[in-house]
Amino acid sequence: MLLFFIFISFILAANYILFRIPVLGPVPSGAVIGSILDFMIVIPLLAYFFIIRKRYSLKYLGFVIAASYGAAYFIIPNEHFSQYSFLPYIVFLSEGLLILVELFILYKVISKLPRLIRNYRSISNQDSLFQLNVKRTVKNHLPNNRLIAVFLSELSIFYYSLFAWRKKVNIQNGHSYTYHKKTSVNAVYIMLIHATVIESIGFHYFLHQWNEMASYILLFLNLYAILYFLAEIHAIRLTPFVLSKDCLLLQPGFSKSMELPLEIIKEIKYYDGPEKLNKKELNELFDARVIDFFQEKPQFEINLKEPQVVNFAYGIKKEVKCIILNVDDPDGFYQAIQKRIVMVETVSE
């Protein structure tokens, strides 16, 4: 990733110097074409090969193309930029192709919708774990690939942000433990929503004076961000940690989750590490805490016998051997986990 940012910095700096330093004199038309190729082809390809291909969904390539177009608009003077009026259509075409890919996935889902609905109802047990139940349903009928994972993430965003306002927590299979009531996570997301709304109004008006398309792209991204924040608020409320007979489900919100078999747990103990973890330490574990204005020290540390997969939004995964978390009822949670670990070890013997 560092190499990617070095390349991008070099491209941006070179183009800025070429067009914005008067001493270099008139810019030939060939240089303008080269700069446009840098922004519209080279930068998206670098982003794909260095970042997107390894970690993220292909849909992020559309965001990169839109951002590259915006950078080109601000760096290349208008007298040169206006000569290539087809560029906005390239951006719209790329976004349209990505939308068509998602529509194809939607078609595959709709074609199997009756069967999916029947299967979902059979495994849902009328609980509030919408995302987990949908994943289990889709796993039985659709291929397990990144595009399906992206579609499920989008579905979860729209479900939790628009249709979960009156839903209540209902866990029938296992004991549930909330983890957000003693935090300010809701206040954090409400603040982010408020800031995004203000930014949408101000920047949309400001950008609309310069570039109408860029203003609408930013408006769309801000609306999407608001839905994302709302989805997190409701998912946190509706998805407590669930301890069942043989599994511990950790899903703090909708954007990350882990189904942990109890026989994989090596130990659970009260956390005695540093209050603040550095980036490297956080990358090697699953932080199942929610965001907070003042992040408290983790209450518990769960060490595993072997690496387990953590699922993030849009199909991103990573393996961890340690989990840190907080709960609203620490004593009850700790005793229940310890009891289940002993029971599992007794059965295995």
**What composes the largest sheet?**
8 strands, mixed
Return the string of H and E elements.
HHHHHHHHEHHEEEEHEEEH
Q: What is the general shape?
A: elongated
Distance between the termini: 47 Å
Specify the number of helices: 12
- Share of β-strand residues: 5-15%
Quickly count the domains: 4
What is the number of E strands? 8
Rg, alpha carbons:
24 Å
Low-confidence stretches: none
Going by helix content, strand content and strand pairing, the class is: alpha+beta
Averaged pLDDT, please? 80
Helicity range: 55-70%
Protein name: Beta-carotene 15,15'-monooxygenase
Transmembrane segments: 30-51, 58-76, 88-110, 187-207, 213-231
Keywords: Membrane, Transmembrane, Transmembrane helix
Could you characterize what this model shows?
The protein is of the alpha+beta class and 349 residues long. It has four domains: 2-97, no CATH class; 106-173, no CATH class; 185-238; 241-348, no CATH class. It has helices spanning 2-20, 29-55, 60-75, 78-81, 87-111, 113-124, 130-141, 146-163, 185-210, 212-238, 279-283, 330-348; strands at residues 175-177, 241-243, 247-250, 256-261, 265-270, 286-287, 300-312, 317-325. Strands 1, 2, 3, 4, 5, 6, 7 and 8 form an eight-stranded mixed sheet that branches. Helix 1 runs antiparallel to helix 2 and helix 3 (60-75) runs antiparallel to helix 5 (87-111).
